[in-house]
Amino acid sequence: MKKLFLVTLILVSAFAVDAQVSSPGGYDWRDSSVIPPSRLEQHYEFQNNQYIFPAKPRSQWELGVKVGTPTVNGDVDAVFPGVGFGVHARKSLGYLFSLRGEYTYGSARGVGSTYISVPTTFNTAWTSYPAGKVYYNYKTSVNEFALHGILNLNNISFHRAEPKVLVYALFGAGFLLYDTKVDALNGSTPYAFTPGMTKDGIKAMLDGSYETPAATSGSKFKTTTNFGFGASFKLSNKVNISLEERVTMLKDDLLDGVKYYYSTPIGVSGAAPIVSNRNDIYNFLSIGVNINLF
Questions:
Q1: Which of 48, 70, 222, 252 is least enclosed by beta carbons within 10 angstroms?
Q2: Residue 246: its pLDDT value, please?
Q3: Is 255 part of any domain?
C-alpha cells in the first residue's frame, strides 16, 4: 500500500508540474452557446467593449467511466491488482467546486503469509480445519455508491483559459454493500497447508473457487466516508482522461473476513485470539475517460 500510494503521489505531482508549463486550452470566449440566457446581455456588452468582464460560462455536466484496481487494507495482505469499474455524473458549481455522484464495483483479493491457528468458534469459515491451522485468504466484491465534493486545486485564476492538466481533491460520503468469501477447500477437501510456505506457494495451491462465506458481523450494508486526490489531462475541450486514488473509510473489520489474530506462535500453549484494533480501509485506484457537456 505504501508503494502504491508513493507511485500515485509521484504521478499526480508530475501532472501538477506539467500543468504549470502546459499551453492553455479552454472554451472560446466568443462562443455564445456556452453562455446561459441570463448572462447573454453581459456577453454581448463585453464583445462590444461596453463591459469590463466577460460573462461566466454555463456550468458543465461531466459524464465519466473508469476502470481500476481495488484493494483492502486490512488484516490479510492484499493481492495486487484487483479488478473494478465505475461510472459517474459530475456537475460544476463554479470555478473551484463541483459535485459528483458515483457508482463503482470492485473485486479485491488477499492472501496471508502467516501460518496461524484459528479456532472455529472465532472464525466459522474455517470449520474444515479441526486443528485450525491455516493461511488466511479472501475475495471480496464491493458495490459502492457515493456523493463527492470535488475541489479544483489549480484552477484559481478566474476568466483565464484552463490548463491542460487539472489537479483536484475529493471528499464525500456514501454507502457500500460487500460480499466476502474464502477459498477454504480444494474441491471438497481441505488444503494441506504446512508451516513455512511462501505467499507464491500458497497462491499456487489455491484453486480460486472461493466457495465458503467469510465471517461477518451481521449486515454487509455499511455507510462510508471518502477522500482522495487525482489529476485530469485534457485531450480537447470536451474530453479528458483522469488518474485518481480514492480511500473509503467504514466501521467494519471484516471486509477481508478476518477480525482476530494471535500474539503467540502456533504450538505455544495458552495462545489466545486478539481482536484487531482498527477497521479495514478500501482503496480504489482508477483511470477514466470523461466527457464534458454544456
A1: 48
A2: 97
A3: yes
Cβ neighbours of 123 (radius 10 Å): 23
> How far, in Å, CA of 206 to CA of 209, rounded?
8
CATH number at residue 79: 2.40.160.20
**Structural domain includes residue 263:** yes
Tally of domains in the chain: 1
Q: Compute how many other C-beta atoms are within 10 angstroms of the C-beta atom of residue 146.
A: 22
Give the torsion through C-alpha atoms of 85, 11, 235, 150, to 10 deg.
60
Domain boundaries, position 145:
59-293
Helix (H, G, I), strand (E, B) or coil at 236: coil
Instruction: Decide: residue 44, CB within 10 A, 0-12 exposed, 13-18 middle, 19+ buried.
Output: middle
| 20-74 pLDDT tens trace | 333 333 456 666 666 777 777 777 778 788 777 777 666 778 999 999 999 999 9
pLDDT in tens, 216-242: 877 889 999 999 999 999 898 789 999
Rounded CA separation 94/148 (Å)? 15
Residue 35 lies in a domain: no
Phi then psi for residue 20, to 5 deg, are -80, -20
Largest Cα separation within the chain, whole Å, is 89
Q: CB count, 10 Å around CB of 235? A: 13
